[in-house]
Structures are given as C-alpha cells and as structure tokens.
Amino acid sequence: MSNLLIDIDRLLRRIRALGEIGALEGGGVCRLALTDQDKAGRDRVVNWMRELGLGVTIDRIGNVIGLRPGREDGPPVMTGSHIDTVATGGLYDGNLGVLAGLEVVETLNDAGITTRHPIAVGFFTNEEGARFAPDMMGSGVHQGALSLEDCLATVGIDGATLGDDLARIGYAGETPVGGIRARAFFELHVEQGPVLEEAGVDIGAVTGVQGISWTQYTIAGTSNHAGTTPMRLRHDAGYVAAAIATEARHIARDMGGDQVATSGVIDLEPNLINVIARSAKVTVDLRNTDEYRLQEAERRMANHVASLAQNEGVEITAKTLARFAPVEFDDEMVTLVAATAETLGHSHRRMPSGAGHDAQMFAPNCPTGMIFVPSKDGISHNVREYTAPAEIHAGANVLLQVMLSVAES
Ligand code: HGY
Ligand code: MN
Ligand code: MN
Which of 22, 164, 226, 236 could form a disulfide with 274 if both were Cys (CB 3.0 to 4.6 A apart)? Predict the structure, then answer.
C-alpha cells in the first residue's frame, strides 16, 4: 500500500468547475447526453486530460478515454464513469468517478510515478439513458453488449437521432469501439441511496448491479367529452396510463424484497382538463437484484396491461427501452476494495447497486470493482445531491490505492 494521497481540494475544484457547465438556477446540473451542455462538459474534461499528458482517443460512439503509459505496454487498468446527467442532476453522479480518475493521474504525475501497467481514465457516452434509451449506452457498445449501429440510430425523446447529435457536437470519433481493452475496471460513484448513510459507513464495496427493465407503453384510446360521455362508453387513455403506473407500485409492494418500480414519464394527448385523453405514453422502470423475480414482475405487469386493453377497449403497444440482467462483480475486486478501505481506516460494507453503472458493462469481460461513497439523505437524480468532502476524499483514496495495486501487479 503506497502512502500517496489524492489532493481533495484540487478534486473539489474540478467537480465545481465541471458543475458550472449546464448549471441550473438554484443549484444542480442539466447536461443531457449529446446536448450543447454535454459537449461543453466533454470539452472541459478533454482539456484536463490533455493538460495531464493523457493520450486522448474518441471512439465511434463518442466514448473518450485518456491513456497514461506504463513501464510496460498492454491493457490498461481503467477507471471512469459518465459526465452526462439527468435533467435535474447533481454535481456527483458520474462526474465524481471521472474526475477522481483524473485526480489519480495527477497524483501519480506529481509523485513522478510510472506504473508497471498503463492507466486509463474514461467517460462513456449517454450513461443516463434519459434522453436516448437505453442507459449505459456508450459503455455497453464499448464492451460489446449493445450494437453500435442500433445506438447511433436511436431516436431520443425529443426526436433527435443519436448519431446526428454525436456528429453535431464533434464527438463522432474515429477509434473503433472497444479498441482499448481494460486489464481491470474500477468505478468510484456516489451510492445514490440511503444505505451507507443509515449504517454510518464510509465506503461501499459494491458486489454487483441489480437487473433493469425499462418499458414504454403507448396507449391509443378515444378522445371524447369529459361531461357528456357515459363511463360505459369511454376508452380513456389517461385512465389506462394511470392504471399502469398504479399497478407498477402494487407489484413492487406485493413482491417486497428488492423489487422497485417507477413510472417516471406520463404524457397525455391532448392533455386538457375536459377532454378524455385520446392517447398516452407511460414508462415503467422495474428493477430487482434477482433475475427470476424481475421476470415475475415483468410478467405481472404484462398480464395487467393485457387485461386493461381488453376491459378499456384501447390499443396498448409495449416497447422495451432497456433490459439488463443483474451483474456480479469479481469477488477478488470486491475484496480488494474492502481491504483497501480497511487499511486506510475507513468503515466499509459489501452491497449491491440499485442504480445502473458503466462498470456493469465491463464486469463480464475483465475484473471489475466499484467503490461507493454516501449520498446525503440518500438523494440523487435531484439537484440536492450531495456527498461531503471527507467522504469524497476517502473514496478517491481507495480508488487510487486499488488502481495502484492492480497497475503494479
Ligand atoms: O438508471 C440508472 O440506474 C442510471 O442512473 N442510468
Ligand atoms: Mn451514474
Ligand atoms: Mn444517474
């Protein structure tokens, strides 16, 4: 274990500087994937990568990887995350992992250390999936889990095509995707939930990521007058959308355990107080750490949707926007994270991730580990997202040490 420590003030300066881009009135950040704000954030991080002497490559889906040579050639020990955010994002989701990677590099630069194996720091395109589904898109393409062509052709919630926007912001790179294979992959990330804070624990040694199932339901009903139409004659797309969202909650409550369910989008047409909605869109996000339980939740939702279509006389089409099975991280890497936290004097615990992460795309292909730091009040995907400097310092030092230990192995 080296006695090197990261420079927390320098890391916090970068977190704040990146947070200026896409800053929202009153706090928080909006840098939806491949928007001008995302471009500006990318440009700022690429400049930092170049200032640190990293060799920067941009691949065909816009993933950006900065490479730091080792004493020997070969696959790098990689770290990274994402810098795109949801529309009401915070300073830390994704950004912390990328900027802590740069801080690891700068700490090694300051110490004049060249590791045996190369080191790489990356940010991956469209991790959030909020504008273009699915999430973890860039890392999924990089690791062969998603098709480059399909992702470039993806149409976003605002009608834009991903490949066009990638070219528009100047990040349609030449490097073939997956050109840089990782020897190992580590990701530092805020927990985005209440577990560490409630347990009073500093570091999460993440054991894996739960399964994710995103479905968009489009409902075609019949517009009619809210006052004159008897209930028996209605084909109310608005009611059906609400019934789907309510059933998602019932399924989660009924199944209990790790099952969670969310309807984050409900759009009605024409969305007027005295008009029975002619059409509606509603999304359902189902997650579970257990694949069979997740399939059970999906089955229950599908059955309910079929009976709604029948009983309400509406057409419902379902479109899968994302489907990832649960992922386990390499136990050796999980143990390395926990042991490193222990040696550094930080409390730690093993735990699964409720959120999706780029690391889950690397896990099938190389030894992969994640480090969690606490989220204040368990809040994320919310402008109030916050993690204290001491907690960031702890997480970034664990990242430095686990990367060093693999990069010297
Ligand atoms: O949806 C997720 O879990 C991640 O924030 N993309
Ligand atoms: Mn994230
Ligand atoms: Mn997120």
Answer: 226
Identify the helix (H) or strand (E) that includes residue 292.
helix 291-312
> Hey, whose CA ends up nearest to atom 5 of ligand 1?
128
Residue 223 has pLDDT above 90, yes or no: yes
Pick the atom of ligand 1 nearest to 381's CA: 5
The residue to mutate among 127, 206, 260, 360, having the most atoms of ligand 1 within 8 angstroms of its beta carbon, is 127
Alpha helices (runs of H) in 147-277, residue ranges in sequence order: 148-152, 162-168, 195-199, 237-255
User: The whole model's pTM is what?
Assistant: 0.97
Q: State the pLDDT at residue 179.
A: 82
Q: Which protein residues touch ligand 1 with a CB less than 6 Å away?
A: 127-129, 135, 355-356
Between the CA of 380 and the centroid of ligand 3 the distance, in Å, is 8
Domain with CATH 3.40.630.10 in the chain: 8-210+326-407
Which of these CATH numbers, 3.90.1300.10, 3.40.630.10, 1.10.10.10, 3.30.450.40, describes 8-210+326-407? 3.40.630.10
